Amino acid sequence: MQTEVLRAEAQSWWRHRELRRTGDLDEAHRLERQTIRRDIEYLRTALNNPNAYVSCGGGGTILHLGLTTVSLYAPVERFPLASLAVRLGTPLIDCRPVRDIIAFANLPKVTMDGQIDPEPWTASSRISLLTYVDAAERLGARIVNDPRAGRAT
To answer: Where are the extended beta strands (E) located within the chain?
Structure first.
């Protein structure tokens, strides 16, 4: 995997920079390695979970991994972990073009355990990633690495 990107991200974190500045290089390196291992595990989870996806909107970017989410108040282009996940094939739902944010926020949630709720759906219902992608796209979201068969973008 592209650990150079993860290493650069770990080294740029303010706490790690401060440890290096004060001369505690061993602790900085230890924490950086720990951060890289954690991020690699997030990437593995994203690649092995068929319902994992990245969403990006005006409020930032979220890597949805099931019970775990990783987020940053930045666009996907400035979130190296999410960018790597998308480059490795994780679907991206870019809701920045969506005009009706209320309707988007009220979409049902993507199931992470495979259990799907019957219609009619509410904002607290659970639906498949494919159904969620269809609904998000109808609202104007841009889909990258489309998980629907024959629709890769």
So the answer is: 53-57, 60-64, 69-72, 92-94, 109-110, 126-127, 142-144
Q: Residue 10's closest CA among 80, 60, 68?
A: 80
Q: Output the six-digit token pair for 77.
A: 């282009």
Which two tokens mark 59?
Answer: 């409020």
Pairing mode, if any, of strands 60-64 and 69-72?
Answer: antiparallel
Query: Which two three-digit tokens encode residue 147?
Result: 């998980």
- Choose between 24 and 46: higher pLDDT: 46
Give the model's confidence band at 2: pLDDT under 50 very low, under 70 low, under 90 confident, else very high.
low
- Return the exposure string of 45-75: e unless at least 16 CB atoms fall within 10 Å of the residue's CB, then b: bbeebebbbbbbbeebbbbbbeeeebeeeeb
Beta strand pairing status for 142-144 and 92-94? antiparallel
pTM of the model: 0.85
Total residues found in the chain within this entry: 153
Reply yes or no on whether the pLDDT at 153 is more than 70: no
